[in-house]
Design goal:
single chain, 447 residues, alpha/beta, 4-stranded mixed sheet, 14 strands, 38% helix, 14% strand, binds 4'-deoxy-4'-aminopyridoxal-5'-phosphate
Length: 447
């Protein structure tokens, strides 16, 4: 590790000046925006990421959860290179997509049919459209604050705040972007997380119009706490009674189990959206589920209820990368990375207790999130950061970064299979000093 307090930023500053002239705000994705300049990657190897200033850090972000085996895993890299040499995209199907579809359908009992797309956003969009086409209904219900990508309907209420979110018994449909059509807001019903009673009361008010309920079983932005069995059962039962579908967004949480996070529940979703890790480092999305529902896409039907295509869907390079990454991510690998997640949460809790800061850690499997809150949040409203907490998270992230640790900007981590307990202990060492700095800077965080 070469991170130090005194490294220069010359190359990044110059690159950012050029970027500002041609990219809005100098970036192509706001997630990585940062002042005085974003960080520019030079290369990644295993769990290490080196920036263009020559500083190497441990990567706990893994491109927002998409690199399950870290950077440039030799087996995945070999599969990619072999495919690139044979051609990168064809106006034809390939055996690879059939093989990869077989693998994913064998892993997950609820996957009878699957279709590949190019991003998590696209997977959620096509899944919601499938639910509408199947049920002939327009409305979608989703959890307040949950992130599901950039489709107009899926992003409703994603950035709700105390000034906009309204009554807890009937949360507002809050737009993310200026100019969001009123129709999109009207067609999205927002429900609170892990509160079956309130959620059912809200759903009942729209019972004839809802095509399906969209839910991330461990939503990162809702606090990264697993949905309870009681909550999922209640939603499932409601959908059975009202000719609606239960849809899981497992774009991130698919990493939580060999068959995704859904294997932990008594009931299965009708449809599931995936992305990130199943692309082996390449852009990807997929949605899968019940044959009768997926038939809306089927071109052999006399009437195709949802005509659906995509130039790069099931791209052979993505399929080769994904197939090799997911073959490597077998039951033993899932078990091992989840145990490392347990170890991390235990060590972080220990550090929090040692230093006496108002903080906690949530998460499950290979994911965790650090909150500057004494009590773990259970829904979006509780997970929402106060001004002090937001400032504290910023300071903590920058302390960790200066000490060689890259985290996701909510102070979350997504582990990779190439990490070990030594990497976790490096994180907790710098977390400890970071917490100590925080308690001096923001005394209200002291217990
Ligand atoms: N759903 C969830 C739960 C996500 O975390 C994300 C991405 N962060 C998406 C959907 C959208 O995926 P993508 O960025 O690939 O469009």
């Amino acid at each position: 590790m070469q991170a130090s307090h005194s490294h220069t930023h010359n190359k990044s500053e110059k690159l950012f000046e050029r970027a500002l002239k041609v990219l809005p705000g100098g970036v192509s994705r706001n997630t990585i925006f940062k002042l005085p300049h974003p960080d520019y990657a030079e290369k990644g190897q295993g769990c290490y990421l080196t920036d263009i200033e020559g500083v190497t850090r441990i990567d706990f972000a893994n491109n927002m959860a998409s690199l399950i085996h870290g950077h440039a895993h030799p087996v995945v890299t070999k599969a990619i290179i072999e495919q690139v040499q044979k051609g990168t995209a064809f106006t034809m199907a390939t055996e690879l997509e059939v093989q990869y579809a077989e693998l994913l359908c064998q892993r997950v009992p609820a996957f009878e049919k699957i279709r590949f797309v190019n991003s998590g956003t696209e997977a959620v969009m096509a899944m919601l459209k499938s639910a509408r086409a199947f049920t002939n209904k327009a409305k979608i219900a989703k959890v307040e604050g949950a992130y599901h990508g950039a489709y107009d309907y899926a992003e409703v209420s994603q950035t709700a705040s105390p000034t906009t979110w309204g009554d807890e018994n009937k949360p507002n449909s809050v737009p993310v972007a200026n100019g969001t059509p009123e129709g999109a807001l009207d067609d999205v019903i927002v429900i609170p997380y892990n509160d079956a009673k309130r959620a059912l009361e809200i759903l009942e008010q729209h019972k004839d119009d809802i095509a399906g309920i969209l839910i991330d079983p461990v939503s990162h932005r809702v606090g990264m706490v697993p949905a309870t069995n009681e909550f999922i059962n209640a939603l499932h039962q409601w959908t059975r009674q009202h000719n609606a579908l239960l849809m899981f967004d497992e774009v991130i949480t698919f990493r939580c189990g060999y068959a995704g996070a859904q294997e932990r529940y008594n009931v299965a979703p009708d449809l599931t959206a995936m992305g990130k890790m199943i692309g082996g480092g390449f852009p990807v999305g997929a949605f899968a589920g019940r044959s009768d529902v997926m038939q809306v896409l089927d071109p052999t039907q006399p009437k195709v209820k949802l005509p659906h295509s995509g130039t790069f869907s099931a791209n052979p390079v993505t399929m080769a990368a994904g197939l090799s990454a997911m073959t490597l991510f077998d039951k033993a690998a899932v078990e091992k990375i989840n145990a490392l997640g347990d170890f991390a949460r235990k060590e972080i809790t220990h550090v929090i207790e040692q230093v006496g800061i108002k903080a906690c850690v949530t998460g499950t499997g290979s994911m965790f999130r650090i909150h500057l809150k004494e009590i773990a949040p259970t829904n979006y409203r509780q997970a929402f950061n106060s001004a002090d907490e937001s400032q504290g998270i910023k300071l903590l992230l920058s302390h960790l970064f200066e000490h060689g640790i890259v985290m996701i900007n909510t102070c979350s981590a997504m582990l990779s299979t190439v990490m070990t307990q030594t990497d976790i202990l490096m994180l907790t060492k710098h977390l400890k000093s970071g917490f100590e700095v925080l308690m001096v800077e923001i005394p209200s965080l002291k217990k």
